[in-house]
Amino acid sequence: MRWLKNLWLTLNRPATFLTLGTISLAGFIMGVVFWGGFNTAIEATNTEEFCISCHSMESKPYQELQKTVHWSNHSGVRATCPDCHVPHSWGRKIARKMEASSDVWGWFFQTVNTDAKFESKRMEMASREWARFDRDDSLACKGCHDYDSMKWDSMSKLAQKQMKRAAENDQSCVDCHKGIAHTLPDMGTARAPELIAEVGTGPNSFNLQQDYYSALTKPLYFSENGDVEAGTLNVATKVKVLESTDRRVKIAISGWRKKIGAGRVIYYDFGINMLTAQLSKDAAKTDGIINGFEEKEDDMTGLKWQRVETQLWTDAEYLIAEQQPLWDYARDTFRSSCSVCHTQPDEAHFDANTWPGMFQGMIAFVNMDQDTQALVQKYLQQHSSTFVKKEH
């Protein structure tokens, strides 16, 4: 340790030959050299060449970009990878660089080095980028697209209406404009990864005669081991578990059906068009599958309704013990996604039978997978004026 002690004494000894000005000037020059080297290194990682040096980025996202208007357009202005994915302000840029260091692990472990791996991660990666754009208010987009510079008269009437609302609120661009530089994930069939990450896939074992709730839309089966489907169980539906195996559970589904046709659709309650389950024609016509009880007539439509119960099998996963986490996720999704174009109405502003039509009119302006759409619609119906009495 003698050398360390001598070094410490040397550093603490007053300068014999150097003046304070010389020391200050040397420190300044060293600072400039360090800062120049650091900034040069940062900028070197801020080029398109650096981004696509990774094969996974060059073979997929970069090829997709070349097919869009951000690559080739009448004005000749091209957006490169860092233009969109690296914040322009220095502070946010450094934070983004630190965040992106995790991508090195993905490269090292070859997380998306094949087309199949990339597609399996596309939804996850896209969701992460959308969240970042929302967090930054799409400042990367606004570096080129300025609300104040837009020519409203050259837009269609619908575009004017939506864009002027967005400009009034300084709306984040990515709220409406997803998939304009890269291929969108398959939103229609994605199994709601963010939802499942929030609520889980359900327990490993079930308590018989206890109520559970479907976390996703699930197929129904006639038997414990058969592959013949008997219908569909809707998301956020309460069921009672009657039997349990390693693979499937037998459940009881209760509700009401309209006495019209085969009566295949089971609704949440009398006179309320809130979907619980849809049975196949074969299931609806099979004796003993649907057990009917009391009947009532709807005064408004003249239709007869019947209270029913059916017992069928479904896969054991995606049945959770509590419904509230589903409602919490649906509420947050509704309030974040459906306030993009206008002030969202209160959940109790419409009744349960009005909400489906209103909600379906909003779907064209947001990106939701089918399970999330069904969950948010059921949340709105369940928390509508039919069940929650409020004054407006």
What does this structure look like?
By secondary structure, the chain is an alpha+beta fold. Among the domains are: 49-175, no CATH class; 200-320, no CATH class. The chain contains 16 helices and ten strands. Strands 1, 2, 3, 4, 5, 6, 7, 8, 9 and 10 form a ten-stranded antiparallel beta sheet that branches. Strand 2 (218-221) and strand 3 form a beta hairpin. The model has no long low-confidence stretch (mean pLDDT 84).
Unreliable runs, pLDDT <50, ≥5 residues?
none
Q: Note the quaternary state here.
A: single chain
Q: How are helices and strands ordered from N to C?
A: HHHHHHHHHHHHEEEEEEEHEEEHHH
How many strands? 10
Tally of contiguous helical segments: 16
Question: Averaging pLDDT over every residue, what do you get?
Answer: 84
Q: Kindly name the structural category.
A: alpha+beta
What sort of overall outline do the alpha carbons produce when their principal axes are compared? elongated
C-alpha Rg (nearest Å): 29 Å
Strand content: 15-25%
Terminal CA distance reads 79 Å
Q: What's the helical proportion of residues?
A: 40-55%
Main beta-sheet strand count, sense and barrel state: 10 strands, antiparallel
